[in-house]
Structures are given as structure tokens and as C-alpha cells.
Amino acid sequence: MASVSSNEHTKEKYSFVYGDEAVSYHVIRKAFPGGKARKIAIRVHPDGEIIVTAPDDAGYSDIHEAVMKRAKWILDAIVEFRSHQKYVQTRHYVSGEMQFYLGRRYVLKVIEEKGAAASVKMNRGKLLVSLPRFDSKKTSLVKGLVNDWYKYRAECIFQERLQYLLPQATWVKGIPGFRILPMQKQWGSCSARGALMLNPHLIKAPKECIDYVILHELCHIAEHNHSERFWRLLTQVMPHWKEVKSRLDSMAELYLNE
User: Fold this and answer.
1) Nearest to 186 by CA among 46, 18, 38, 39
2) Whole-prediction pTM value?
3) Which stretches make up the YgjP-like metallopeptidase domain (predicted)?
């Protein structure tokens, strides 16, 4: 799900039929700098949306042919994501709900006590949220406190992992800046100037998955698209990245669920 940022134009909507199922997909046109690989890339997001990134002058027949060649893979991905969604329930931010942090599950416990300071802390397998009052806004208060806690922890851990991984990314000069940005369909992105954006929900995943996303984006500093050189570079710094990515994707619906 990690991806490089790009100048996206209006999405074009098309569809295809595979077996008994009609599938819609969106095409985003992209201008490729001279000498860069001009490939048609297909991505299936956890919510089932299919995005096809194609050169700005690619013909519809070429795009459709590329999609049909991967039709079975697309349907398999959709079916897999649908199976994950069966276990995703709307969060109400009440005691007993499950929260994630660094790949581990924690039970949310909300404590309301008059005069208490609003706070979030972890203790013995629980994520404890203290509230200073009882009122009808409890759900939004707990959600806000939990999200702020995730963002704070994300800033700390992402900085720590970035510092740890930078020696492997020998092509990166200096320390790239990064900021935390909630995203619905991406774990991270990299600007043309080499600034990273990382999703705070990523802090719910194991450190190895966090490392994968950071390394993915660091590779984009050297190669701004998913060319063969990009994948070789990523394999060089994380040989088992496919397994790690699969692990992260398999939990995406749960980690991104608010």
C-alpha cells in the first residue's frame, strides 16, 4: 500500500467482466520523465477500489489488455480483502474493544473519574483511557485521546526506525524530513523533493512492517516510480519484503479501522 506521490489527473472509470462478476476500475494518467520506465501499474486497495496508473498517452485497448492479463489476480485480491472485512466492526471506543500497537492486541479500558486528568497509557495488555467527566461526548473524547496517543507514538517510533534504517539507504543524502498524515488508502508516500509522509495507523503494525514502508519510501527518493530498478533496490535492502507486505496488507482493514 505504500506508494509514491504523483500529479494525478481526473480518474477515468472503466469495467470488465471476469466469470460472473463485473468489476469497475479507475485509470489515472501519469506523465513519465524521459528515460523512465513507462508501465501500466495496477493496485487493489483494501476497500476493493482498483486503481490503474498508466502513461498519459496510453490507449484504452492497451490499458484494458493489461487489466485482463491480471484479471484473476485482481479478483483474488478483492475476494481476500472481502474476507478480511467480515471481521471489521465499527469502533465505539468503549471498554472491551480491541486496539493494536506494534502488532500486538490491547484491550481498551475507559475509566471515568471526576477531576481526573485526561490521559492514555498502556498497562498489562490494556490501553487505559482516563476521562475527567461523565457526559454524552464520551465517544468522541476517547477517540480523540486514542488518536492523539497513536500520533505521538508514531512520531517517536517512526523517527527511531528512520534513523536505524538510513545507513542501509546509502543513496539518501542527509536525513529526509517526514510528517504524520492520516490516509485512507496509503501507508506512506514520498514527494518529488524526498520528503516522507507516513500514516499514523502504521504504528499499529509490527516494527518489521513499519520498516518495510519506510524503506519503500526511501527507495522512491532514488526511483520515483515502481520500475524494475526500484524493486531491485527494495529487494537489496529488504530481501523478504513481499512476505512483510503481505502480512501488512492482510491486517490493513483492522489497522485502518476507526
Assistant:
1) 46
2) 0.71
3) 38-250
What are the structural domain ranges in the chain?
12-85, 98-256
Is the CB of residue 218 less than 8 Å from the CB of residue 200? no
Grid cell 472481502 in the structure block, residue: 82
Q: Residue 6's Cα: distance from chain center in Å?
A: 16
CATH assignment of 98-256?
Answer: 3.30.2010.10
Describe the crossing of helices 207-222 and 138-165 by its angle, rounded to 10 degrees. Answer: 60
Q: What is the DSSP string of 122-170?
A: EETTEEEEEES---TTHHHHHHHHHHHHHHHHHHHHHHHHHHHHGGG-T
- Contact between residue 120 and residue 149 where contact means Cβ atoms under 8 Å apart: yes
Give the pLDDT mean for 85-92.
Answer: 66
Residue 35 — pLDDT band, cuts 50, 70, 90?
A: low
d(CA 247, CA 244): 5
What confidence score (pLDDT) does residue 3 get?
A: 36
Contacts of 147 (CB under 8 A, 6+ apart): 200, 258
Find cell 516522507 and name the residue: 196
3-class secondary structure, 172? coil
pLDDT by residue (tens digit) across 209-258? 999 999 999 999 999 888 889 999 999 999 999 999 989 988 888 888 87
Task: Assign 166 a pLDDT band (cuts: 50, 70, 90).
Answer: very high
Q: Burial letters for 155-183: b for 16+ Cβ neighbours within 10 Å, e otherwise?
A: bebbeebbeebeeebeebeeebebebeeb
Cell of 215: 524503506
- Measured CA distances, 200 to 13, 55, 85, 167 (Å): 30, 31, 21, 24
pLDDT band at 93 (very low <50, low <70, confident <90, very high): confident
